[in-house]
Design brief:
This protein is an alpha+beta fold. It is built from 13 helices and 9 strands. Helix 3 runs antiparallel to helix 4 and helix 8 packs across helix 11.
């Protein structure tokens, strides 16, 4: 098994689920999770938890992570509130036992997962989410696409969608976990990764590693492909929608905890 791999969700879950995934962490390996606008339901150390949308990096240093296999299902931006049945802001930057969110089904699912094989765990997660019959917030999904376009402004996005900024803020906080400003920052970071990295981990049935926020935000073709030479960091910053290289450096540090050079060395887009 590869350390991390993504699998396409069943067709009926495509509107609300970005992917199913598995991760096998070697002992002593540093794990760094960065904001992606998504909420995950994860089997972690034998416990089933809801991993809320992060607003900053979450890092487990070497020695803190024993060898383990983790399975999860990733909800698309704008789907978490409906799937969980609570405002997504209630789990922002948190890891919450699923049984606390779904008292009726969370513990039963955790018990079933504990005796299932890896493939069975993913199937159980998918079937449980499918049974929720949830729909992604279409307004928030449309806002996410528009907020990812370089130069977009929240006021213009709200106006294009026919709602007030306050209404868009409330809907986004409920559906994603945080507001349009943070969602735009995440989309910009994902565009930068897409301009700087190679293919992401495989996702069966998916056409491109950038099919999440970055693609829907209109990520341009690789600068290297267009120009025939590797683009500079400053060129990538501008193409991703940052005001300057300094702006990009500050944002990357805040969202990842690393310098842009260090972060982009091995960054790859994951499904969102």
């Amino acid at each position: 098994m590869t350390p991390y791999r993504e699998l396409a969700p069943p067709t009926g879950l495509l509107p609300v689920v970005a992917c199913l995934w598995e991760h096998e962490a070697p002992p002593g390996h540093e794990q760094r999770i960065i904001p992606d606008g998504c909420v995950d339901i994860v089997r972690l150390d034998g416990e089933l938890v809801v991993v809320g949308a992060d607003t900053g990096p979450v890092v487990a240093g070497p020695g803190a992570v024993p060898a383990s296999r983790t399975s999860g299902i990733r909800l698309r931006p704008g789907a978490a509130g409906a799937v969980l049945g609570i405002p997504a802001s209630e789990v922002r930057d948190q890891r919450v036992p699923l049984a606390d969110v779904w008292p009726d089904a969370g513990q039963a699912l955790a018990d079933a997962l504990s005796v299932a094989d890896p493939a069975g765990r993913l199937d159980l997660l998918a079937r449980t989410v499918l049974q929720r019959k949830a729909e992604r917030d279409g307004l928030v999904a449309a806002a996410a696409r528009r907020l990812g376009v370089p130069g977009s402004r929240i006021s213009s996005v709200a106006g294009d969608l026919g709602v007030s900024e306050r209404h868009l803020l409330r809907r986004t906080v409920d559906a994603v976990g945080y507001g349009p400003k943070m969602l735009g920052r995440v989309a910009r970071l994902r565009r930068l990764i897409g301009l700087s990295s190679g293919p992401a981990p495989s996702l069966a049935g998916r056409t491109s590693a950038s099919s999440g926020l970055a693609e829907r935000a209109g990520t341009p073709p690789s600068l290297a492909e267009r120009a025939g030479t590797p683009p500079s960091l400053a060129e990538r910053a501008v193409a991703a929608g940052y005001a300057s290289q300094a702006h990009m450096s500050d944002e990357v540090r805040r969202l990842t905890g690393l310098t842009p050079v260090r972060f982009l060395e091995d960054a790859a887009l994951t499904a969102a």
